[in-house]
Specification:
CATH class of the largest domain: Alpha Beta
Number of helices: 14
Strand content: 25-35%
Structural class: alpha+beta
Largest sheet: 9 strands, mixed
CATH topology of the largest domain: Alkaline Phosphatase, subunit A
CATH superfamily of the largest domain: Alkaline Phosphatase, subunit A
Length: 637
């Protein structure tokens, strides 16, 4: 079982106490005073939502049987109404959990509430939620449903129930007023144990770690990769102090699957985070944050991409985790520096996911510096609409699209400069506190971005290098200085490499290629690397592009194969490129080399089959996730 901690409501909520000041007397390299400061570690023993084998349905509504779903009391709110994995018990319903004897410190995390659909329609009334254990009522809550319920009352009721001495229990819903079929739900439903781990001080031998994922960052826009635009002086300075991987790839061309791979070391076929229908990071998977927290690192995470959030279980291993809806880099960095002011005396892991290049809205200072004249008629909506006409094979103004593309590219570059500026703030803060030399920096991206390189804009839709080729930089104590690695590598091996470098365990998928080992890196580059997306587009001569495709790719040696197993009308599609003579992947060789295509497709099929054998159950994000992806432009409107 893996460690998992919920985030506090706000960053910086992890405050120091007088007791924690004893940590100033801790020795470096793992030595602790007998009564030194500790951190709470919450370990998930079992998810009662995900595991059907641990429950027995005693009563259920025949029209709406007991079922696991993602449920949100409110789709948009500033109160506790966000989505959770839940068991839906449309009243009357009762479920028994014969768990057997639990550990003395075991607790049940439970949230009772109603799906947002229960506040629509003409039905109204009240539902009672209850839990019985050892013949006693241990939890009871009632909640109204119907249009008349105010927005601020459409929330979860959260509790923690001690399970010491409880071998089995039942949960129950009843309609006590009114009429209807409200979707009454028990959310979270996780059995956890809590223990304490000592905190430790940082040193060059026991360093801090700053891991930065710059959402949507192409490798070729950074100076350390040969760009002369001057967008990234702070990133470039760090790169000069460490290792630059010149041919690094992500596992997917969009955020959910690729970030899950960074966290777990697994491919999308193995971790299962592939779409809004499968977007919860399963508790069974080991993450680098969990391993580091257990080993004594104080852990904090900040993500400006709303897909990477506590609600989707990406906070596993983070003592504090804050997610935002598209905030600028300076907001994230201000909060992160506040967290460091409270927590940075101890050896820390700081995870930062910036989103500025995804958002195309740079500060005025960098916009003035890097962005040219506004094209006539430009807006982000106009650019998307013009691109949509191209994809649909409708008449469009190609010259206007090119001018919009040029402007978008400049906004993008200026947004990279914004992130770089905020990295400079972090570096100066660490230097002022004497922590810079004791800190490992890792900089990468979840994916890249396309500017008509292969006829597309944005990301998610293809598997070419502009979308899956990403920067990968490591610098700090024990990392070779001024080294450049030419071999193809995958950034999903970053976490395992870091853990090995720190002398920590690498459980599960984290035990992959060590990117700091020349021999392992060379051997890894000779193995097949797989990439995939469920948001693919495929151009067709004389007709609209296929959209919303599941698309797989494999890189082996100098070959790149992209394959759509099934298009909208049942057709398949394949493209093969020889990157040794065609590095930009312009000439499709699939017609000339059908046998080679078949062999590489077989590799993909075996990879998918292996993944299916180890992949955990993954919850859907429900309607709330679908709406979020639509708002982000991934799935159309």
């Amino acid at each position: 079982m893996q460690v998992w901690t919920k985030a506090p409501a706000r960053p910086g909520a992890l405050c120091l106490t007088l007791g924690l000041l004893l940590g100033l007397f801790l020795g470096a390299c793992g030595e602790t005073a007998p009564e030194g400061p500790t951190m709470p570690i919450q370990e998930v023993q079992i998810s009662l939502v995900m595991d059907e084998s641990v429950r027995e349905v005693l009563t259920e509504n025949k029209e709406l049987p007991v079922v696991p779903l993602t449920v949100a009391p409110a789709s948009k709110s500033d109160h506790d109404g966000g989505p959770l994995p839940a068991l839906v018990l449309c009243p009357p319903a009762e479920v028994r959990f014969p768990l057997g004897q639990m550990a003395p410190s075991s607790e049940l995390i439970l949230a009772a509430g109603l799906d947002e659909s229960s506040y629509e329609g003409e039905d109204s009334g009240r539902v009672r939620f209850s839990m019985m254990a050892n013949g006693k009522l241990v939890f009871e809550h009632s909640a109204p449903f119907g249009k008349q319920v105010p927005e601020d009352q459409r929330t979860w009721n959260r509790v923690r129930i001690p399970l010491a001495g409880i071998a089995d229990f039942t949960i129950k819903t009843e309609l006590i007023e009114g009429q209807g079929k409200p979707l009454a739900c028990f959310g979270s439903m996780e059995v956890v144990t809590v223990s304490q781990r000592p905190r430790e001080l940082a040193s060059a031998q026991a360093p801090n770690v700053v891991m930065i994922v710059v959402d949507t960052l192409r490798y070729d826009r950074l100076g350390c990769y040969g760009n002369t635009g001057g967008f990234s002086p702070n990133i470039d300075a760090l790169a000069a102090r460490g290792v630059v991987y010149e041919s690094a790839y992500s596992a997917a061309p969009w955020t959910w699957p690729s970030t899950a791979s960074i966290f777990t070391g697994l491919t999308p076929a193995e971790h299962g985070i592939t779409s809004y229908e499968a977007c919860y990071l399963a508790q069974e998977l080991a993450t680098f944050g969990e391993v580091m927290q257990r080993a004594g690192w104080t852990t904090g995470g900040f993500s400006c991409n709303p897909l990477i959030c506590t609600e989707k279980a990406f906070a596993q291993g983070f003592e504090s985790f804050q997610s935002y809806e598209w905030k600028h880099a300076d907001v994230l960095m201000t909060d992160a520096l506040g967290w460091l002011a409270h927590s940075g005396d101890w050896r820390f892991l700081l995870y930062l996911q910036f989103v500025d290049p995804h958002d195309y809205r740079p500060t005025q200072a960098n916009k003035k510096k890097f962005v040219g004249k506004l094209p006539e008629g430009f807006s982000h909506r106009a650019a998307r609409d013009l691109f949509a006409k191209r994809v649909l094979n409708e008449p469009y103004d190609a010259e206007q699209l090119e001018s919009y593309n040029r402007y978008l590219s400049e906004l993008y570059d200026a947004s990279i400069a914004d992130v770089d500026d905020e990295l400079g703030r972090l570096i100066e803060d660490l230097k002022a506190r004497g922590q810079f030399e004791n800190t490992i920096f890792i900089i990468t991206a979840d994916h890249g971005e396309e500017f008509l390189d292969h006829g597309m804009l944005y990301h998610g839709n293809q598997l070419h290098r502009e979308l899956v080729g990403i920067p990968l930089i490591m610098a700090g104590p024990g990392i070779p200085k001024g080294k450049r690695v030419n071999e193809r590598v995958e950034n999903r091996f970053l976490a395992g490499t870091l853990l090995k470098h720190l002398g920590l365990e690498t459980p599960g998928g984290l035990a992959g290629v060590d990117l700091l080992s020349n021999a392992e890196t060379l051997a890894g580059s000779e193995e097949a690397a797989f990439i995939s997306t469920t948001l693919g587009m495929w151009p067709r001569a004389g007709g609209p592009h296929w959209k919303g495709l599941t698309m797989h790719g494999v890189m082996l040696g100098d070959e790149l194969l992209m394959w759509v197993p099934e298009g909208p009308e049942g057709q398949s599609a394949v493209a093969l490129f020889d990157m040794s003579v065609d590095p930009d992947a312009r000439k499709d060789l699939s017609v000339e080399r059908p046998e080679r295509c078949a062999a590489l497709q077989a590799l993909i099929e075996r990879w998918l089959a292996r993944g299916a054998k180890v992949r955990p159950n993954v919850m859907s994000g429900g309607d709330s996730a679908l709406k979020k992806l639509q708002a982000m432009g991934y799935l159309g409107k």
